[in-house]
Amino acid sequence: MGTYGGYKTMNIGFIAHDAKKVLMQNFCIAYRGILAKHTLYATGTTGRLIEEAANVPVHKFLAGHLGGEQQFGSLVENNEMDVVIFLRDPLAPKTHEPNLSNIVQLCDTHNIPIATNLATAELVIHALERGDLDWRELYR
Known about the structure:
The chain is of the alpha/beta class. It has one domain: Methylglyoxal synthase-like domain (Rossmann fold), CATH 3.40.50.1380. It has 7 helices and 7 strands. α3 links the parallel β4 and β5. α1 packs across α3 and α4 packs parallel to α5.
């Protein structure tokens, strides 16, 4: 966590199942002004799509099924992620897509807010903008 013009910056992680990648792009376009103030991380393809759509820099890991899920999980496990937005397809996840249970367990262990659907993602992003998640700095 650092500062951006006196504003606290946080590490925000993004993961999206294939069926939710366009929704993730649209979310990031809609909230580009907020996201641009923070450090963004994502698994490979999701990160590239976010960068292209929202024109914000994203630290990209490998594709989820090629080790990106483990790279992402390592930051969560080390309590270096402040917010996780994981738009998942609960009806038809593919076998190559990231496993939600490990990421959720790590977020729960370290009290890291995680959104798994658009409604919760919007609540979290608004809370982030208001400063409601500044307690993460103390928790770390």
